[in-house]
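Hey, I was hoping to borrow your eyes for a little while. I've dropped the whole record in just underneath, so have a look:

——
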Amino acid sequence: MKIALYSRTTTPQHESCVLQLVERLQRRAGVEVLLHEPFYRSLSQPLHGVGLFAGAKSLPPHVACLMSIGGDGTFLDAASIVAGTDVPLVGVSAGRLGFLASVTIDKSEEAINDILAGKFTVERRNFLRVEGCPDGLHYALNEVCLQKRGAAIAEINVHVNGEFLNSYWADGLIVATPTGSTAYSLSAGGPLVAPNAECMIISPIAPHNLSVRPIVIPDTAEVVLEMMTRSGSVIVGVDSRSYELPAGAKLKVQKATTQVGFVKFSDSSFFQTLRSKLKWGLDARG
């Protein structure tokens, strides 16, 4: 069985987590470990007995899964590698609050046992397809975000399926997937959405009109965004990537046909993650 590992952080503590995971995998008979080549080259000590891959095109056939070790940003990078393939993702948390990882490093032994025994399911997650950014099409698993430059408030005009929705006077605006409802959209006051819900979330960032609230729309919709600002340019965020566009440029956002698979273990669920990460149900009165 081939298992690939992806990571992008090279602090001593993080490197130790990755090496620990590699060691646990190499102890299992019949397991071939593949490591992302840029991370391998950054290691402070030699690592023997692993294969290398540079990206999706260099992954060999029949890889059982890609394990992402880090936070949500690392997971999003890993998702772009296996997007549109049959290789599912396992998130191993070495970050902070992140919602995308389903396994902590101290529980990775149990996760490895379940993977080798086939005791998991694969949950398909959708991407957003973004037109209007530099270099052609881009894809977002979490969100697309328009943000102003400078201090002046911006005007963001939004159309849904050709119908005018609103002019938002705000610092920016987020279009999120259900997966991304626990990311930037949540910080901007957006709702938590179960990952299998078929929708998109439009959340303004610091709106000047306090009656403006996030709205949930069907994921079959086509959303067109146009941002006007005095600075002459705007910042577009597509997950962890960012681009600069001239003010007045239009972005078209809609659900992509591309998907990625998340490995789901029997002892984890979205609701359980919410209770754990957000400390729901705990009596904080002391």
Q: What stands out?
A: The first strand starts at residue 2 and ends at 6. The mean pLDDT is 92. The domain at 127-258 is CATH 2.60.200.30 (Tumour Suppressor Smad4). Helices lie at 12-26, 37-42, 72-82, 108-117, 184-187, 270-277.
